[in-house]
Amino acid sequence: MPGTGTLILLRHGQSVFNAEGRFTGLLDPPLTARGRSEAVYAATLISGFGLHLDDVFTSTLMRAVRTAEIVTECLGLSPMPRKVWQLNERNYGSLTGRLKSELLAEFGPDVLHFWRRSLYGAPPPMDAEALGELWRTPALAQLPARAVRGTESLCEVLKRVREFWHQHLRRQLLSGRHALIVGHGNSLRALCLLLDGLSEGEVERLNFPTGHPLVYELDERARPLERGGIYLDPQAARSAAKQVTAEGGT
Q1: Which position among 20, 52, 73, 89 bears the catalytic label?
Q2: Domains in the chain: how many in total?
Q3: Per-residue b or e along 78-98, where b marks 16 or more CB atoms closer than 10 Å to that residue's CB
Q4: Are strands 230-231 and 55-58 parallel, antiparallel or unpaired?
Q5: Does 226 participate in catalysis according to the annotation?
Q6: Bridge partner list, 82
Q7: Distance CA 16, CA 42 (A)
Q8: Is residue 26 part of a domain?
């Protein structure tokens, strides 16, 4: 719509921990070779559809930052992506770094599903030593105290994403700027909850595949013209999302 920007959501490319089937959370593993290729393909899709970018926002975590850098390099954009801590992945607490298959065997599908997929469920918190190690990582060391909790529910991620939406992103879009958000499965689920007014059940079922751009055209009030947005490669995105679902979700 004239005068209103376009919003593109992109989950970072596959990381080393994604490939290993681990809960990554606020840990900071690099992209795999596949993850780097996914970022290149995302840029190819964005370019192929003639989508213009004024702003690129990313979390502070390297897998999202590097994905954003690859996309902007491929598109020939000079501005560096801007890091926004509110877009960081949720802290999975004591599940962080552990294999999902082991946790499934230990706690069972119902408990694990509640912790990882529901709006209000939060895993048990990590201990003080593990939390201190997180604070010392380069991606998190300079952030405000409220940026790193012992554990988080999706609802708590929603609160910080909502802050970024209302204080900055929504105004940028209403001014006509076109933005790419490179985030994580849960920060993007939270943003879609805001955009689409998702119910608890809908957000519980929502999964983001890595490396697939999702485009929202917005009206004059920054509401989606099409609920759920449009994937630039819908068939491949649906297939990748089904695989994420089969693995237990984002």
Answers
A1: 89
A2: 1
A3: eeebebbbbbbbbbbbbbbbe
A4: unpaired
A5: no
A6: 57
A7: 19
A8: yes
From 12, 38, 156, 212, the catalytic residue: 12
For residues 220 and 77, give the distance between their C-alpha atoms in angstroms, rounded to a whole number.
27
Whether residue 189 is annotated as binding a ligand: the answer is no
pTM above 0.85, yes or no: yes
The answer to whether position 1 is within a domain reads no
Residue 63 marked as a ligand binder: yes
52 is catalytic: no
Q: 162-169, long-range: CB within 8 Å, 24+ apart, which pairs? A: 162/190, 162/194, 163/86, 164/84, 164/86, 164/87, 165/191, 165/194, 168/84, 169/7, 169/57
Instruction: Report if residue 64 sits inside a domain.
Output: yes
Q: Which helix (H) or strand (E) holds 56?
A: strand 55-58
DSSP string covering 201-219, please?
Answer: HHHHH----TT--EEEEB-
- pLDDT per residue over 92-135, tens digit each? 999 999 999 999 999 999 999 999 999 999 999 999 999 999 99
**Is position 249 annotated in a ligand binding site?**
no
Please say whether the beta carbons of 5 and 172 come within 8 A: yes
The domain of 130 spans: 6-246
What is the mean pLDDT of the segment spanning 34-56?
96
Cα 98 to the center of its chain, rounded Å? 20
Q: SS3 of 146, please?
A: helix
CATH number at residue 90: 3.40.50.1240
